Amino acid sequence: MQIYLAGPDVFQPDALQRAESARRLVSRYGHRALIPLDNEASTAAEIYRANLAQIAAADLVIANLNPFRGFEPDSGTVFEAGYAVAAGKPVIAYVDDDRPLADRLAGHLGCDLLHLGERLVDSEGMSVENHGLPLNLMLGIPLRVVRGGLEQALQALAAD
After folding, report:
1. Is-contact 63 81, C-beta < 8 A?
2. Cβ neighbours of residue 108 closer than 8 Å, sequence gap 6 or more
3. Which residues fall within 8 angstroms of residue 130, CB to CB, at 6 or more apart?
4. CA 16 to CA 37: how far, in whole Å?
5. Does the pTM exceed 0.85?
6. Which pLDDT tens digits describe the chain residue by residue (160 residues)?
7. Does the N terminus or the C terminus of the chain have fewer Cβ atoms within 10 A?
8. Dihedral, CA of residue 87, residue 23, residue 147 and residue 59, to nearest 10
């Protein structure tokens, strides 16, 4: 299989080394990694088109949906996962913490969430999803979410 690796890893200072490590790991599982850094694109529009072309060529997407620069996953990675789902491609997402979103949010905010009747709300009175999923339901339902990293996602793929 050709597997597109989506995630904010491309922003890390050691992005090229991480990409090579990921490529070797994917190869050990008998697959070929498609990594955004493989593109020679340089402008925003070129990078966008090249990444979509890689997703189109992939059989599957594995997405790093760990929090990035805040509480939520990288928005570009979320877009790529949604794009892949819309294209009918399976997506396996990995997260370090697979506790329900409401529990993770309470820990992130450092306070208890409030129950207002049937609703769970934060300290600003905004509703909080409480479906027992580790991510927003628009990700938690269509994606297979595994706890761990790339290797755990590849193990989940091998188990299918």
Report:
1. yes
2. 71
3. 100, 101, 102, 120
4. 8
5. yes
6. 999 999 999 999 999 999 999 999 999 999 999 999 999 999 999 999 999 999 999 999 999 999 999 889 999 999 999 999 999 999 999 999 999 988 888 766 666 666 766 778 877 788 888 889 999 999 999 999 999 999 999 999 999 8
7. C
8. 20
- Please provide the size of the chain in residues: 160
Residue 134 amino acid letter:
P
